[in-house]
Write a structure and sequence with these properties.
- The protein has two domains: 184 residues, no CATH class; 90 residues, SH3 type barrels.
- By secondary structure, it is of the alpha+beta class.
- Helix 2 packs parallel to helix 9, helix 7 runs antiparallel to helix 8 and helix 8 runs antiparallel to helix 10.
- About 3% of the residues have low confidence.
- 58% of the residues lie in helices and 20% in strands.
- A hairpin with a 2-residue loop joins strand 5 and strand 6.
Length: 366
């Protein structure tokens, strides 16, 4: 228990140090590259952009924080001391795995809060206006096509909407209304003008015009989901899941939304697996192997690996590659390899190494 608390304290400290240093540096660079008037606006913009970058870079900070802790344990001979006291590697790695998974779930929980919209808030300050309106939308809804002049996301209101209902490749109805309000899971349109087209032997013979006080339309089209589909920006997990369900129901490609969700759900999962892999190759003592070489390939591999993963995620958003086979496959392969190393190098403690180290020191002392 004491070793668990000791390792946890060191790891949390190093993780917070690297996360703050990394995100703070990128925030300063971003702030310097944008012209923002007013001290208060600069502070708010820095705060929101810091939150946004923290969401992106915390998985890398988890891995780098673990590597820094490994380095301190090796250099100070703490790892050798733990092994000499018969501590198993499986017990030593548990604090790192528990904390990395705990941080992962904390950020998942935060993604169901306004924390997920830090990027939008920062963009609002940068542009000097709220991005709460989406204009000139055209999208599919079941057997209909919808055109809306504007959507007010905050007030949950559509303006100047036309719904074209089509059946058997023929225009059946046009619903025309000035505004609609979102209530529960659907839109309530008022003062609707309904144009019904009449056909005789596949030929149009006239139009019947009717007026209705209220009609329920566009069930399941949540305001923030619509904004996500049109702007493709960051969104919270709840609305992302709704968007995928909606697009699947409408038989529309959801690659962009799935890639956005995968970046939140899958990319951070690689952190604990990388930590386990790197720990399995950690030398017990700085004289046993090249510590500099170990740090070079582990830290370099971490940075390059995350760059490759984020690049693949960008390609999957544009449907250049299938998002269902990119990140899930990478995460699965990393997981399988980490499990393999767990049973080969971590769960079973190699006592021969300890004996060789002790013999090596006895030889030197003689």
């Amino acid at each position: 228990m004491i070793s668990f608390l000791y390792l946890s304290k060191k790891y949390i400290k190093n993780f917070l140090l690297i996360a703050f240093a990394l995100v703070f540096t990128i925030t300063l660079i971003t702030l310097a590259s944008n012209q923002i008037d007013g001290f208060n606006r600069k502070i708010l913009y820095s705060f929101y952009i810091f939150e946004d970058f923290l969401q992106i870079f915390y998985p890398m900070a988890l891995v780098l924080g673990a590597l820094l802790t490994f380095y301190q344990l090796i250099v100070n001979n703490h790892l050798l001391a733990f092994s000499s006291l018969s501590y198993k590697k499986s017990n030593l790695i548990k604090p790192f795995l528990y904390i990395s998974f705990a941080v992962y779930f904390i950020f998942l929980a935060l993604d169901f809060t306004p924390f997920a919209y830090a990027y939008s808030n920062a963009n609002t300050i940068l542009k000097g206006k709220e991005e709460n309106r989406v204009k000139n939308m055209f999208f599919k809804y079941n057997d209909s096509f919808v055109y809306a002049k504007s959507l007010d996301v905050v007030n949950r209101e559509f303006k100047d909407v036309k719904i074209y209902k089509i059946k058997d490749l023929k225009l059946q109805k046009i619903l025309d209304f000035d505004s609609a309000k979102f209530v529960k899971d659907r839109w309530i349109a008022k003062n609707v003008k309904v144009k019904t087209f009449k056909y005789n032997n596949q030929k149009p013979i006239g139009v019947e015009v009717d007026s209705r006080d209220k009609i329920e339309v566009l069930k399941g089209y949540y305001p923030r989901v619509i904004k996500l589909l049109y702007e493709g920006k960051r969104v919270d997990l709840a609305n992302g899941i709704k968007a995928i369900a909606l697009l699947k129901e409408q038989h529309i490609d959801s690659s962009q939304v799935r890639s956005t969700l995968y970046s939140k759900l899958l990319i951070p999962l690689i952190a604990p697996f990388l930590i386990l892999i790197f720990f399995s190759f950690a030398p017990l003592h700085k004289r046993v192997a090249s510590l500099g070489g170990y740090l070079f390939w582990t830290m370099g591999g971490t940075i390059v690996g995350f760059i490759v993963i984020y690049t693949l995620n960008v390609f999957s958003k544009s449907s250049a590659i299938n998002p269902n086979y990119v990140l899930p496959v990478v995460i699965f392969v990393t997981f399988i390899y980490s499990v393999y190393l767990w049973f080969k190098k971590i769960d079973t403690w190699c006592e021969v190494k300890i004996i060789l180290i002790l013999l090596h020191y006895n030889t030197i002392n003689r």
